Amino acid sequence: MLTSKQAVLRRFWYATVPVERLDDGPVPFRIMGEDIVLFRGDDGEPAALRDRCCHRTAKLSKGWCEKGQIVCPYHGWRYDRTGALTRIPQQDAGQDTPRFRVESYRCQARYGTVWVCLGEPLADIPEILEDSDPAYRRIQQFNEVWHTSPLRFMENSFDNAHFAFVHKGTFGDIQQPAAKKYELMETDFGFTADAIVDIRNPPESHRVTGTTAPDIERKLRNRWYLPFCRRLDIEYPAGLRHIIFNCATPIDDESIHIAQILYRNDREEDCSTQELIAWDQAVIDEDKDVLESTDHDAPLDASSGEEGSMISDRPGLIVRKRLLRLLREHGEEEVRGDGPRPKVLHRDTHLDTCSTDLITNEAGN
Ligand code: FES
Ligand SMILES: [Fe+2]
Known about the structure:
- The protein is of the alpha+beta class.
- The chain is 18% helix and 30% strand.
- It has three domains: 3-117, Rieske Iron-sulfur Protein, CATH 2.102.10.10; 130-291, Naphthalene 1,2-dioxygenase Alpha Subunit, Chain A, domain 1, CATH 3.90.380; 302-362, no CATH class.
- The radius of gyration is 23 Å and the shape is globular.
- Bound molecules: FE2/S2 (inorganic) cluster and fe (ii) ion (FE2).
- Residues 156, 162, 166-167, 287 line the site of fe (ii) ion (FE2).
- Residues 156, 162, 166-167, 287 line the site of fe (ii) ion.
């Protein structure tokens, strides 16, 4: 799927930068190939406009803010948060300002992050109850660009089979490759997926997990929110919670912006923000490295025969099935790139049997 070609995906909220980034002036961003500028409007709340002046197309993000409005760097035309032109400095006072405007987008601050929707929203931003729960602290962990697609990121989030390999340098145990099955329930927003997995607990993660035992259990109560948000809700022994919320915002077909927010029900002195960032950075760097080696143009339609699958791929196959259904419900078909795509050879192998079963029976394509 080429994300930027699927119009219905414009109708979801996507996370961009932390709100405080706007304190230093306008910030450029790109969603689904659309260049936008983010800035604080006259009410102090974030605003999003198309990053293109309607005079001679200069990027507004190279300008500055004045009285909660954005000033173009080229000839100083000024726009308010709705995109309406409010001032042409070269005109004489008393002359009417022409009613030009640049396109504006829905924009709001939530969980310390600026969220943007390019169209009429089909769903609200996922609710994170812990954000208003005093038992939890919020840590803005990461805002980084990955060269992969949001589908690859979402699938990886619910793929227990990669821990032993991709995360062998942190919590994975390559001697234990068997993947724990999820208890999975489809919902209107996506699905819930629960599992208990065994992990290694090296000394570097003792303060993160709250225990010094060398091997521990992780209780996972995960959620996928259509199309590209996930909640990775980890419970460590003694009830310590490590809840990661991600939005994989499509920048264009080949890259995503990862926003990662962490909620913990412990205190800074138990495990500092710096320690939590360092540990999770090591983990997500492992994912990033392998995901950037995959083809961004992953097929939604499992019957394409381009990729083999196994039982543990079931959550990812459901993600694909639901995305395909979403497109079709809105009159779209999956758009693919025209790069070469070899077919997987279908022989009488175990994997092939799994793949066929999953595709026809479980994922329902
Ligand atoms: S291009 Fe923006 S004011 Fe001229
Ligand atoms: Fe991972």
